[in-house]
Design goal:
single chain; 223 residues; mainly alpha; 12 helices; 2% strand
C-alpha cells in the first residue's frame, strides 16, 4: 500500500489514522476498511473530517440512487467523497437535483446502459435509440464546466449559461447552505467520537485551513 502511495510516508500519521477511524465510525468493518484502503491508498492522504469532504459525502448519500448510508459511500465511493472539491462535485449534484435530473445520475454508466438496452430488446454493447442520457460521478467531477454543460442532460436544462448562473450563485443557494450546515453538524459529531489525539490534530488542521483561506482572501483584495 505504501509502495503505491509514497505520500503516506510524508503526511502526519494522524491523517490516515483519522481516515480509518471515520470509516469504522460510519459502520465499516475492519476488513472493509482495510479493503477500501488497499484499493485506493490515496484516500488515506485526505482529511476525512474536513468540511468539504463531509459535504461531498452527504451529497452522495442524498443524490445517488438507493439512498446510500455513510458507510456505503465510503466503501464504494470514498475517493469522490474525500479527494475532490465540494463546490465541483456536491455543487453539480445539487444542480442535477434542482433541475430534476437525479434520475439520470449513476455511479458509472456502463452497467445501467447495458441493462436499459437489454430490457428494451437491444444489444448490450451498442448504443440504442432512446436510451437515457445518464450522468456519471466521473462526469460530475471530472469534466470542465463547458464539457459538463455539453452533456445531453445538462443541455436539456439550459446548458452552459444556466450552469454558470448556478455556479455563481452557489454560496447563496439554500440547498448548498443546508448541505454546509448538515456537514458542520456531522463534523462536530465525528470529532466527539474519534480518539482525543486525532480530534486535536483534526482541529489544528481546520484552524490552519481557515488561516490559509483568510490569507487567500486578503491576497485577492490587495490584488
Amino acid at each position: 500500500m505504501v509502495s503505491r502511495t509514497p505520500r503516506l510516508l510524508t503526511i502526519n500519521t494522524s491523517v490516515w489514522q483519522t481516515a480509518l477511524a471515520v470509516m469504522q465510525l460510519c459502520g465499516l468493518t475492519r476488513d472493509d476498511v482495510l479493503k477500501a484502503a488497499h484499493l485506493n491508498p490515496s484516500v488515506l492522504c485526505s482529511d476525512w473530517l474536513a468540511l468539504g469532504s463531509l459535504v461531498n459525502r452527504l451529497a452522495l448519500q442524498r443524490c445517488l440512487p438507493g439512498g446510500l448510508s455513510a458507510g456505503q459511500v465510503y466503501k464504494e465511493h470514498a475517493s469522490y467523497s474525500v479527494m475532490f472539491a465540494a463546490k465541483r462535485l456536491a455543487g453539480r449534484l445539487l444542480f442535477l437535483r434542482q433541475h430534476v435530473l437525479l434520475h439520470l445520475l449513476v455511479a458509472e454508466k456502463k452497467g445501467p446502459q447495458q441493462n436499459w438496452r437489454q430490457q428494451h430488446g437491444y444489444r448490450a454493447d451498442r448504443r440504442a435509440p432512446g436510451e437515457p442520457p445518464f450522468v456519471s460521478l466521473c462526469d460530475a467531477n471530472g469534466l470542465t464546466d463547458v464539457q459538463f454543460a455539453s452533456l445531453p442532460a445538462v443541455q436539456a436544462a439550459g446548458g452552459l449559461p444556466v450552469l454558470q448562473a448556478f455556479v455563481s450563485g452557489l454560496d447563496a443557494n439554500p440547498g448548498w447552505q443546508e448541505l454546509q450546515a448538515a456537514a458542520a453538524v456531522e463534523q462536530a459529531r465525528l470529532l466527539m467520537l474519534v480518539p482525543e489525539d486525532l480530534r486535536q490534530a483534526a482541529e489544528k488542521r481546520q484552524q490552519e485551513a481557515k488561516k490559509r483561506q483568510q490569507g487567500d482572501g486578503q491576497s485577492e483584495e490587495e490584488a
